[in-house]
Amino acid sequence: MNTVFEPKLLLDWLSPQLPNMLRTLETFVRSESPSTEKAAADICAQVIAAEWNKRDVAVELLQQKNRGAHLRIAYVPGNAKPRSQLLVLGHYDTVYATDTLAKMPFRTAAGRIYGPGAFDMKAGIVQALFALDAIQYSGVALAKRIVFLWTSDEEIGSESSRKLLETEALRSDAVFVLEPALGLKGLLKTARKGVGEAEIIVHGYASHAGLAPEKGVNAIHELALQIALVKKWNDLPRGVSVNVGLVTGGTRPNVIPDHARAVLDLRALRIADMRKIEKRLRGLRPILPGARLAVRGGFDRAPLEHKISAALFQRAALLAKRMGLTIGEGTAGGGSDGNLTAALGISTLDGLGAVGDGAHSPGEYVVARTMPQRAALLAALLLHS
Q1: Virtual CA dihedral for 309, 312, 314, 318, nearest 10 degrees?
Q2: Where are the beta strands (DSSP E) in 55-204?
Q3: Which of 97, 140, 178, 241 has CB atoms 3.0–4.6 Å from 90's, for a disulfide?
Q4: What is the model's pTM?
């Protein structure tokens, strides 16, 4: 068995595999898998499992009560008994309802691959599949188990998969996340904002707006004062944003409203800022006499800070250079399951999936020619980690 393998040879082997990669991607995309439709997601999980079962791996379909099955695939070469592992993480669920293919069909045009979930992130699963093929072709004796985990509910918060993926991450020396790359330059995501949602709920006292306005406590006025306060917490240069995205309250114009509610989107690039925002939220107090205030929610995903990805990115950049490629890095404003693994202190590198654009939109697409390159980069990382 080899112990050293030049990364460029991985790319040389994978480049002619592009037609096979595209056929596999078409199979996966044609099996629609909305997060909230268990039956469809379960079928897609079986379709993906069937492809992985063609390889020398152990495939587990982990059934869920209300969501599609999660897929855990373990590769342990030969008779090795590794004491550690590497985790390759992603999801097969999409934001598109069943029958979206009727108006958004799988198609190829001008070197781009279109279809629901092609970019986010079924192409990433295909790239990982062929990365494994390349690893097996290399003949390198791996010292670590590789676990591929494809979940069914990332797009709706990872409720049923969070414990599973955190357990696998804690067993792992590093986590490689196959979420799409950042932009058409294929940047790896070495930082992600933490993401959360909070509610500010105000209770006042109803009264007639004309006959006895002084007897009422206007919940909407109180909420407006709170919103003005919260607005000052925004610090965009630091990556802190608090967006009031939904406001409700009152019953009719001639009634002093006794209730009002605002829903906030919370984002922060640093864990310290996340904690500061949550502390401020808990510290809100009523401003108008007689008003009552409640705050619910907070951050659901902590930030993926740059320091948790820095070493893995440097390794990726070096390996890419040896393949004749240039790889860059960037910061993503949204969260992923990579935020969850990074919060555990596990080295995590995100954005290793497809290069393309238009996630969650009718124009979602993958740049086809980049798929072998991304698969080669993942294979090289797994061989050199």
Answers
A1: -150
A2: 58-62, 70-75, 85-91, 107-109, 112-114, 145-151, 172-177, 188-192, 194-203
A3: 178
A4: 0.93
